[in-house]
């Protein structure tokens, strides 16, 4: 956890972080075939949808929780590989998430934008999303089968499903383990026909390091 | 000139169908078969499957042009490796090559559809986006 990391400053600007991310991606990560990865995630989402009878709000929640559990563990890996030090402010955290975090695990660097005035909220915009490469959300239309009860069983995926919601969960899980309580949610997704894929991250509070009971 | 396109699944059940009007040779893109043919188009297209079955395992190719004809309407078939059939029924002549090109691009579209986790093999395709894309390549080649 972040406690074990020395709290010295990360010097230099974004360039330096980019280099670190680059270096880690090239030399220190194990890589798998991206089609295998994409299709594995796709079949997980597809299976969850089927099991939940295409109740997409439930599916979003399940994906989020899966991500949360992944994030809780992934942060350890992230810290041990990147050897990154404690961030000074939330802005730096955002840079690290994009330039090193996403680079390390997905080889993408989402663009950070739309900082709120109080610097507690920012937006991550994905130029490409490896999770969603072949995906087409169902857009079933039923001209002739309107009376058929089995038609349109796949519901309103384009209005309700956040296909890559697992990413939100991962971010939430990771940040929580370094004492940053955040809210993370999708605001747009190209799969739904939006112009870009974006996630918003909002810092709610900085959790205080808690001393375990009887450990004084 | 008009085209009737259908995709037949590996279990010989229909997956997709679309009426296509030509834009080539001063046509206006409106689908027009005479009524007596229009009512029979599914039967004509499907009857060619028998001929296909007789020759598909004796042949290396995927594209069978002019496999069957019925009162001036000819049938073209593209057979994929997984035994999905794309069939075109048309009254236009001398378009073998452009129909072949069309099938190749249609194959790409279909494969993309197949890779999507929300589409099940051999299930009917009802997607608006798929139709739009098919119409786009039809405009290009047919």
Summary?
Chain A: It comes from Pichia kluyveri. The complex is a heterodimer of chains A (216) and B (142). Chain A has helices at residues 14-27, 34-51, 56-82, 90-106, 157-160, 165-177, and strands spanning 111-113, 121-126, 180-188, 197-206.
Oligomer: heterodimer
Sheet with most strands: strand arrangement of chain B? 2-1-5-4-3
Low-confidence stretches of chain A: 1-12, 143-151
Name of the CATH class of chain A: Alpha Beta
First-last Cα distance of chain B? 9 Å
Quick one: which chains have the greatest interface?
A-B, 17 and 11 residues
**How many alpha or pi helices of chain B?**
4
Spatial strand arrangement across the major sheet of chain A: 1-2-4-3
**Discrete helix count of chain A:** 6
Portion in beta strands of chain B: 25-35%
Description:
The complex is a heterodimer of chains A (216) and B (142). By secondary structure, chain A is of the alpha+beta class. Chain A has one domain (13-135, 156-206): Muramoyl-pentapeptide Carboxypeptidase, domain 2. Helices cover 43% and strands 13% of the residues of chain A. Chain A contains 6 helices and 4 strands. In chain A, α1 packs parallel to α4 (90-106) and α3 (56-82) packs across α6 (165-177). The longest helix of chain A is centred in the N-terminal third of the chain and has 27 residues, at 56-82. Chain A starts with 13 loop residues before the first helix and ends in a 10-residue tail after the last strand. In chain B, α3 runs antiparallel to α4. Chain B has 142 residues and is α+β, with helices and mostly antiparallel strands. Chain B has 4 helices and 5 strands. In chain B, strands 2-1-5-4-3 form a 5-stranded antiparallel sheet, sandwiched between helices. In chain B, β3 and β4 form a beta hairpin. Chain B has one domain (2-141): Beta-Lactamase (2-Layer Sandwich). Chain A: Pfam families: TRAPP. Chain A: Its main location: endoplasmic reticulum. Chain A: InterPro entries: Bet3, NO_sig/Golgi_transp_ligand-bd, TRAPP_component. Chain A: This is Trafficking protein particle complex subunit BET3. Chain A: It is found in: Endoplasmic reticulum; Golgi apparatus, cis-Golgi network.
